[in-house]
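S.,

Sequence below, as promised.
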Amino acid sequence: MFTPNRFSGNPLDRSGDLRNDTAWLAAQEANPEALAMLVWEGSPMVEDHDGGQRLVWLSLAHARDLVTDRDVFLGLWKGAPVFAIEFEGSIDPTSGPAGGLGRFMDMRSAAAVLGDADLGMAGTAKALFDWRRRHGFCAACGRPTVQASGGWRRLCEACGAEHFPRVDPVVIMLPVYSGGDEPRCLLGRQARFPPGRMSALAGFMEPGETIEEACIREVREEAGLEVSSVAYHSSQPWPFPAQLMIGLMAEVTHDDAAPDQTELEAVAWLTRAEARAALAGTHPTITAPPPYAIARRLLETWAEG
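The prediction came back faster than expected:
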């Protein structure tokens, strides 16, 4: 079976049709079995459990005592309604109303320690709250919007426009050149990366583009290479704030790579042995992408042949 990328694996029944029914949604809110996770500025609350970490769950009633009018409906978990509630502000709520319940962990750190189910739910909640903050006003008329469908829709009562959470598609690809003595893959480095970190190439898709066309354009723009074929690998929800990473393998026609100095400041070709060393942490100069990133999955797949 295919091993899912991190932030996938959300176990909830999202109840996409039912959540549009205000009476049904009200019944879920009144259900004594309703649960809620806590989020502060995009960071979920976690607690230690059996040597690891897991999400903290409260009853919805308890969570609403802590925060009012800041919750979204995530779905049903074994028949029980599941919500997320968000704290806002610069002061850590564990120093106030959420004291003693757990600790808030930034989402990238959570991606390294939470189980697939917990991380999938937390990532969904973060994406919804990020969208909510950015879409408080109607893009059509500029008037305030109100929440509907449990947080999956916003309505403008002035002009009647409906707004839905956005998902931004991003192509992320590992260029591969097979024309030399042995196959090699290309990694690139952005200036914002930690020292030594290199990763796959990536870029947002543009209107009127296919996935393949976006891959060809980005590899040409960032590294000066021409793509001859594109193969799909997998995808990954990426809640920073709302990307869908579309993982690809891109065969290129030559190895004369040159970083554009805008997106990339450096590039490097790796043999399979060198790629395995980077993944193992033994390469003398290159650090591989973190384990929770799809870029690492692409490199692992190619390194394993």
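The two ends are 18 Å apart (CA to CA).

Coffee later?
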